[in-house]
Amino acid sequence: MRAHWLLLIPASLGIGFAAGQSIPGLLVVDVASASPIEPPSARSGSSTAAPEAVPDGLSDEEKRTIEVFRGASASVVYITSIALRRDFFSLDVMRIPQGTGSGFVWDRRGNIVTNYHVLEEGSEFRVTLSDHSTWDARVVGVAPDKDLAVLRIDAPSAQLTPLALGSSRSVVVGQTVLAVGNPFGLDHTLTTGVVSALGRELRSPAGRTIRDVIQTDAAINPGNSGGPLLNSSGKLIGVNSAIYSTSGSSAGIGFAIPVDTVRRLVPQLIQHGKTIQPEMGATWLSDGVVARLGLSGAVVYDVGEGSPADRAGLRGIRVDRWDRIYLGDVVVAVDGKSVGSNDELLHRFESAGVGSTVTLTVERDGRKRDVRVPLLSSE
Fold first, then answer.
1. What is the pLDDT of residue 224?
2. Identified catalytic residue from 225, 245, 249, 250
3. pLDDT (0 to 100) of residue 374
4. How does pLDDT run across 174-221, given as a tens digit for each residue?
5. Contacts of 198 (CB under 8 A, 6+ apart)
6. Which residue among 147, 212, 217, 329 is the active-site one?
7. Is 117 assigned a catalytic role?
8. By CB count within 10 A, which of 58, 60, 193, 263 is most buried?
9. What's the Cα-to-Cα distance from 300 to each of 35, 41, 279, 304, 373, rounded to whole Å?
């Protein structure tokens, strides 16, 4: 099975239906695909009407699910991505439907959280709130390494309902989860399931590994990207991002970026427009070269003069006047946790955070030693 990102494309663009698809006008595709710009107000499942009374005879669990869905729906948004393209013959600039996805309100200042891959191919963006008002949105910050992005709209704070945040650290396999989004362009759709597994890994659009990903069997389909995965109390525990599927539709294996990662990175995106990476003033040999050398770990390529790495006595690769290359230090563990690649090293640094001091286990000339190094901001 393959990992699929969750977007839509209108069949009117001249692309045929995938095998087995029966939804008129829509086709399931992968991350690079485009999607329809159908106004949410024209779609079924409108959420503008007053909530219906809960029927008698429902179980406490059903009533709880209804309550959670109605509470979260006010926070979930529909995102439209538009690409600007110049016509080859007329040279006119055209607006082409590029993608749609979901997102949710982060705060009353108009910040909206979604997946990076929802915005990746777009030039302009629009956000439709639960009351069906549509707002032009601008990109505040993106984190391709973690498949997260923040948009901002200038909607009045009274129209914005931030989603309550939970913790992914307390999530356990078997607990009930609810996914809310706009799959296949259908407004505010709810699916339920359980946490199927924890600690999964997912490859981000930038090629980095997203770790501690939550796996769920709640149906997640194209258009759910960027929407919330909630616990039974209605709090965010993850951002729905991808599925494993042979067809592009849900096969009961969906993945969500954990909320603890979202909680840590979104304030950085809002303030700086990017994530702030902890670093120690060293550059690293690429993983491909390290593998070809038959080594394992993060190989120091160069050390900045006066940097924390320099003060800790770390040494990079040296070349003598006869062009002979001498290997310097190889980091094989951070705070006692093994490191087999640059990606793992960066993950250890991110977990520790800017301002912390980490203990590196370093190997040089067959000997190991521990050194303590403070982590600084990459800015």
1. 81
2. 225
3. 95
4. 999 999 987 655 567 899 999 999 999 888 888 888 989 999 998 887
5. 171, 172, 173, 212, 214, 215
6. 147
7. yes
8. 193
9. 44, 55, 13, 11, 14
